[in-house]
Design goal:
alpha+beta, Beta Polymerase, domain 2, Methane Monooxygenase Hydroxylase, Chain G, domain 1, 7-stranded mixed β-sheet, 18% strand
């Protein structure tokens, strides 16, 4: 679906144009065309390939999707793939944005994400002095917006970890904590897979050999790289804390099992004493100590009770009960 097709000249909006006229505007030296597509099909991508003269390998990647975040250079044009990550109920929804950048055009396609980039277009049109840089500045603005949308997701994952940590020392929730921590680990890996490859790719857009399209925009792409570095560092910090939390929860499970074992052993010892005494005096032998005593039976019962009471308070003292 075509979202926008707009021509710009000298940093200002010239007009919304029909897609059939794209190739005519692209030929104009002081003009560039910005097209946005949502969930395009193969025929739409093929039409854009003909209008812009896109490289067939880049179009094929955009058509099949499921690409690793990357930035590839095709002659005087660039092809970038970014992952969008959004909170959806208790999980993360991952989408994909493919961006084709040339000297006089930029084409963005988004798949699997409902949240668009109308605010990016408004921002660029409100800064004509920066929009004069053409497609390179739009590429920066799109990348910056995608990366900025990672921060609320990361904040939510930090809050989720803090909530689980508050429950670590609550009894009978260790299993639920482990399940929550592993679900959090999966979400962190999803975000990490979006951030780390993109950080590597953006690092090639400033310093050293920079693609000609991005010349003069190094400080802007360095800003995106700095944001990605912050995200990477925070993700690694959360992963370390999560690993520690898992170990503590496993330790709590072992501790609870040890406490149960102690209680069972204590009660087994308390029950064993009267069982032993009753078993001995239940044997049918005539010549047994104290067998003919008048108060033998009450004494045996009293001995059982006294030993069991003593054991009970001793186990309480050593915290086995």
């Amino acid at each position: 679906m075509l979202v926008n097709c707009v021509a710009y000249e000298e940093g200002r909006k010239l007009a919304e144009i029909p897609k059939e006229d794209i190739s005519e505007y692209v030929k104009r030296p002081d003009c560039f065309v910005w097209v946005a597509l949502k969930d395009p099909d193969a025929s739409e991508l093929e039409e854009m390939r003909e209008e812009f003269g896109l490289h067939e390998l880049a179009v094929e990647d955009a058509r099949h999707g499921h690409q690793r975040p990357k930035i590839e250079e095709y002659g005087d044009s660039l092809f970038a793939v970014l992952h969008t990550v959004q909170l959806h109920s208790d999980d993360l929804a991952v989408g994909e944005v493919a961006i084709f950048v040339g000297p006089n055009y930029i084409l963005s396609t988004r798949v699997g994400t409902e949240r668009g980039f109308a605010d990016v277009r408004a921002r660029c049109e409100g800064e004509p002095h920066l929009l004069k840089h053409g497609a390179a500045y739009v590429l920066y603005a799109l990348m910056d917006k995608v990366v900025d949308r990672y921060f609320p997701v990361l904040d939510a994952l930090e809050t989720e970890l803090e909530t689980i940590e508050e429950r670590i020392f609550v009894k009978n929730v260790a299993r639920a904590n482990i399940e929550g921590l592993y679900a959090l680990k999966r979400k962190l890996m999803t975000l990490k897979h979006a951030v780390d490859p993109l950080m590597e790719a953006v690092g090639k857009l400033y310093g050293g050999r920079v693609p000609r399209i991005c010349a003069g925009m190094g400080e802007y792409f360095r800003d995106v790289f700095d944001h990605l570095q912050r995200l990477h560092a925070t993700i690694e910090g959360i992963r370390d804390m999560q690993t520690t939390a898992i170990q503590v929860n496993l330790g709590m499970i072992n501790l609870n099992e040890t406490e149960v074992t102690k209680k069972l052993a204590a009660w087994a010892a308390i029950i064993a004493v009267p069982t032993l005494i009753a078993g001995i005096y239940g044997m049918n032998f005539k010549n047994m100590p104290e067998y003919d005593l008048l108060y033998g039976y009450p004494l045996a019962i009293a001995l059982m009770v006294a030993i069991d009471v003593g054991l009970y308070f001793w186990f309480r003292k050593i915290r086995w009960l």
